[in-house]
Specification:
The chain is of the alpha+beta class and about 260 residues long. It is built from 6 helices and 14 strands. It has one domain (about 1-255): Deoxyribonuclease I, Chain A, CATH 3.60.10.
């Protein structure tokens, strides 16, 4: 099974850069997208609803902002738009597809880089998300949470870690929260289940030639329930074409989706 996650920083912008043409060549089983930045009524062009895939969108109420999407070869047994929390769901940050006992989630955790108000909102969503993920594991579901988590977990996940210790995305509280998810609540970082080269990142600032110099952050993850940790077969960050300021993360798993 192949799963792709990608923050597109605008699905229409990414489409103009060839994202959907590339996607159709990947033959992925599930695709999770974040930051669609569009209302579904604005996506009438057939490319946004590929015939070979079942397509679901969860829009933010605010136009041109946030939003998630999920495409799958196999029709899910159930699709859940949102966490059931109004102040999160109005921003379109959570979309879950269930395939039998497997949940695949497209998640867009907020960034706090714009200031204290949004950082507080980020912490508030983190506080709501952790018990939600714990509940999923307690139900004995297998879980794959794909998305932009806006947190670089360790020093290996950010090029300039010394200069970002006080910046949103690498704050001690954020990193500890993600560490708690891994250490105490039976989740794992799928990318780190296999050996990796140094300096593998998924996001680069658009300033200072950061992408050309590979001064990046790894903030896009597939975080999996620990029962799937041994099923990770292959990982890669796709950088041959640029569809946004993030790069798609592609992971192959050694099991099949079933309804």
């Amino acid at each position: 099974m192949k799963i792709i996650t990608a923050n597109l920083n605008g699905v229409r912008s990414a489409a103009s850069k060839g994202f959907f043409k590339w996607l159709m060549r990947q033959r992925a089983d599930v695709v999770c997208i974040q930051e669609t930045k569009a209302q579904e009524w604005q996506l009438e062009d057939p490319q946004f609803h590929p015939k070979s895939l079942h397509c679901y969108y969860h829009d933010a109420e605010k136009k041109g902002y946030s939003g998630t999407a999920l495409f799958s070869k196999l029709e899910p047994t159930k699709v859940i738009h949102g966490m059931g929390i109004d102040w999160i769901d109005c921003e379109g940050r959570y979309l879950e597809a269930r395939f039998g006992n497997l949940s695949v989630i497209s998640l867009y955790l907020p960034s706090g880089t714009s200031g204290d108000i949004r950082q507080a909102y980020k912490y508030k969503m983190m506080d709501a998300l952790l018990p939600h993920l714990k509940k999923l594991r307690a139900s004995k579901r297998s879980v794959i949470v794909c998305g932009d988590w806006n947190i670089a977990h360790t020093e290996a996940d950010i090029r300039n870690w010394k200069g970002n210790k006080k910046n949103s995305g690498f704050l001690p509280e954020e990193r500890a929260w993600l560490g708690e998810l891994f250490d105490k609540h039976r989740y794992a970082d799928a990318f780190r289940q296999l050996p990796q080269k140094e300096h593998e990142y998924t996001w680069w600032s658009q300033r200072g030639q950061a992408r050309d110099k590979n001064v990046g952050w790894r903030i896009d993850y597939q975080i999996i329930s620990d029962d799937l940790a041994s099923k990770v077969k292959k990982t890669r960050v796709y950088r041959d074409q640029f569809f946004s300021d993030h790069a798609p993360l592609i992971i192959d798993y050694d099991f099949d989706i079933q309804r």
